[in-house]
Amino acid sequence: MKRRHLASFDDEHALLGAIARCRAAQLDVVEAWSPHPVHGLDAQLGIPRSRLPMLAFAGGATGLVLGTVFQYWSSAVDWPIDVGGKPFDSLPAFMPVMFELTVLCAGLTTVFALLARSRLWPGKVVRAHPGVTDDRFVLAAVPRDPTLPAHEVDRMLLAAGAERAWEETIP
Amino acid sequence: MAAELEVLAHAPTRAPNPHAPSRPSGCAVPSEEPLIGGGKTLTQVTRDVCAPLERRPTFAWWAALCAALAMLLFGVWAVGYQTATGIGTWGLNRTVGWGFDITNFVFWVGIGHAGTLISAVLLLFRQKWRTSINRSAEAMTIFAVLCAALFPVIHMGRPWLAFWVFPYPNARGSLWINWRSALLWDVFAISTYFTISLLFWYVGLIPDLATLRDRARGWRKKLFGWLSFGWDGSGRTWSRYEMACMLLASLATPLVVSVHSVVSTDFATSVVPGWHTTVLPPYFVIGAVFSGFAMVLTLMLIARRVMRFEDYITVRHIHAMCKVLVFTGSIVGLAYATELFTAWYSGNEYEMFAFENRLHGPMAWAYWIMVSCNVFVPQLLWLRRVRGSMVAIFVISLLVNVGMWFERFVIIVVSLQRDFLPSSWSSYCPTLVEFGAMVGAFGLFFTLFLLFCRFLPMISMFEVKTVLAPAHPKEHA
Fold first, then answer.
1. In the structure, what pLDDT confidence band is assigned to residue A84 with cuts at 50, 70 and 90?
2. Residue B241 covered by a domain
3. Does the structure show a pLDDT above 60 at B20?
4. Which pLDDT score is estimated for A6?
5. Which of B7, B189, B465 is closest, CB to CB, to A36?
6. B43, B46, B167 member nearest A74 (Cβ)
């Protein structure tokens, strides 16, 4: 059983301002939820830069290699067929398909990596914080001093600009 | 402690920045007008965009859906009859082997391009006006590519063997497909384009589906809960999500250029005069963007009126699209001129004749419809009075759609009609079955689009929320 304090805001700037104030008040902001991406939130929460581009690159490179090798193998090795006297290994003519497979594999890798890493799947049940998919910005804070009473934490959150603050237990 | 003070000092607040350069009041710069009218709040955006989904469909919607379904049924009859009887039901002959089917194929692929351009290229260029229209433009792309893909399949005559175009281990050898064929490149280009567009569109929908989930009750809540993949809007997810969107945009951007280039190689790699030319890939790409923007304008002008989205799809959006239309229309004009110049400069009598035939031949009317609709009509948008009238813009967008359809007709039919040997010259007259397939494709497109408007948020709510004027007092666009 872990306890954390939630605070909701009506504005993204209020949220960003509050995160800085919480830190000054010895509260660790562990997560924030918002109806739209908030610029500067990554830095405030200390979220490292996503490594999706590396995966996308790896996916694209795999597609490129697969496309090249398979086209070469099927037209020059497995069953070479003379089409209008063209060479069996017609690399320039293979390029469109090589390109398309690169893009396709990179795109599929990006999306599946995003879903896997963020643990999103069809049918997953969540209870989003009220209003967070509409117009509310919510942060979760944990006091650095565990002996700090709950009402004191809530008071600090309200002082930081929250319109509402409450405590939550998570299993 | 010093670090904390530093953070506090830089924490964004609502107070205006005293060091920001002040702008004299009353000197409104058009591009600084708010993108979204009516001074909306976040929750108003949610409510306005969800409203058409949460109320009963209007009479106009039902009427439009019935009309679209009737068109679709006509198409189903035509394609069904053609599939059962054979492609002899079409007006094609030995000389004109491609007609309405490939014209419609190229037309629909082209329509799709504007969606990708708006969602991917304008995202990379950080054009914020795209947020109101990107969702529906992407939906348009997907439906248009779907319509496009139908035509080559029904042209096969035996559509149940369509899977032969893919390289799969088969009992004939395995006999692999011919990778050197431009038609095969098309298969890969179109299926990649469709897949990436669909992924991009669906990923873009997830946060909005979560909004719908949290507003709905009963079975709708379950459905949207299932579709929204358990989205909770956390900072970490948003961070990754934005990165994924940028990556998908960067991947879709070369597709904007490549798909129609590949389609143009169906023609350019052949030896038919009028097709065998290196200008075709850029010519096709710019034509595609031009026709796609015309279709986006047509749809958006109807949608903003019918769905009461005037505050979201504002005059500024419409004017931005008009500018794109004038710009791309002018390049299309340049492409037509280049084509004529190259034909003359080549000194090749067959090439020269192909264009002579377009300008003065038996189907010259099609060429002149194409030139007037694509080159001259959009130039009217330079006039302030024309841009001020939504009706005029709507008519222009329709005419551009017509002109771009005729462009493909001219390239395909008029080039094939009279080639090297006068003894094999022929003409082409489409049959009712071909008209049926064309009307059916429009029916399918509008049916899907109407269902989309009814069941999914037509405007990307979370993206519009990021560009609401008062929330970004200090942002420099």
1. confident
2. yes
3. no
4. 87
5. B465
6. B167
Q: Boundaries of CATH 3.30.70.1110 in chain A?
A: 2-35+131-170
A53-71 pLDDT, tens digit each: 999 999 999 999 999 999 9
For an interface test with B, give the residue of A88, A100, A124 to mutate (most B CBs within 10 A): A100
Q: Which two tokens stand for residue B285?
A: 């790409």
With an 8 Å Cβ cutoff, are A97 and B179 in contact? yes
Cβ contact, residue pair A120, B215, below 8 Å: no
Band of residue B405 on the pLDDT scale cut at 50, 70, 90? very high
List the 74-93 stretch of A: residues with Cβ below 8 A of B: 74-75, 78-79, 81, 83, 86, 90, 93
User: Taking 50 as the threshold, does the pLDDT of residue B475 lie above it?
Assistant: no
Domain that holds residue B216: 38-166+178-471
- Whether B2 is covered by a domain: the verdict is no
Interchain proximity B12–A53, CB inside 8 Å: no
Select from 3.10.180.10, 3.40.50.620, 3.30.565.10, 3.30.70.1110 the CATH code of A2-35+131-170: 3.30.70.1110
In B, which residues are within 8 Å of A6 by CB distance?
none
Q: Is the pLDDT of residue B3 over 60?
A: no
Is there a domain that residue B366 lies in? yes
Residues B102-142: tens digit of each pLDDT: 999 999 999 988 888 888 888 888 888 888 888 999 999 99
Q: Which residues numbered 151-170 in A keep a CB inside 8 Å of some CB on B? A: none
Residue type, A155: R
A114·B203 Cβ contact <8 A: yes
Cβ distance of A42 and B239 shorter than 8 Å: yes
Q: Is A136 helix (H, G, I), strand (E, B) or coil?
A: coil
Write the CATH number for B271.
1.20.1630.10
pLDDT at B31 over 60: no
Residue B51 covered by a domain: yes
Contact B437, B104 (CB under 8 A): yes
Which of A44, A52, A122 shows the shortest C-beta gap to B226? A122
Residue A104 forms contact with B (CB below 8 Å): yes
Q: Which two tokens stand for residue A81?
A: 């067929």
ipTM of the complex: 0.92
Whole-number pLDDT of residue A129: 82
Please answer yes or no on whether B180 and A90 come within 8 Å at the CB atom: yes
Cβ of A104 within 8 Å of Cβ of B195? The answer is yes
- In chain B, how many domains are there? 1
Region of poorest pLDDT, from B22-31, B169-178, B392-401, B402-411: B22-31
